[in-house]
What we know:
This protein is an all-alpha fold. It has one domain. The protein is built from 4 helices and no strands. The radius of gyration is 12 Å and the shape is globular.
Amino acid sequence: MNYGMDADIWSLGIMLIESLSGQQTFKYCQLIKQEKELLLDSINETNLRIIAKQTNENDQKYNEQVFHQWLRLKFKQ
C-alpha cells in the first residue's frame, strides 16, 4: 500500500467532512474508499470543494454519481 495514496484519500475525506454533514459525509467517504485502488497523484482542492458545495444544493443521488465519475476521471492511472 502506498502511504502517499492513503494520505491523499485522507485529505479528500477531510475536505468533504468540512463541506458535508451527517449521512452525506459518510456516503462520500465510502465512495472515496471504493476508489483506493486508483493512483491519487494530486488533489484539485477547488474542484472538490465545488462538487461538495453542489451536493448540498442539488439532488444527492445525482451528485453521488457525478462525484464518483469525477474521482475516476481525476485519478485515473
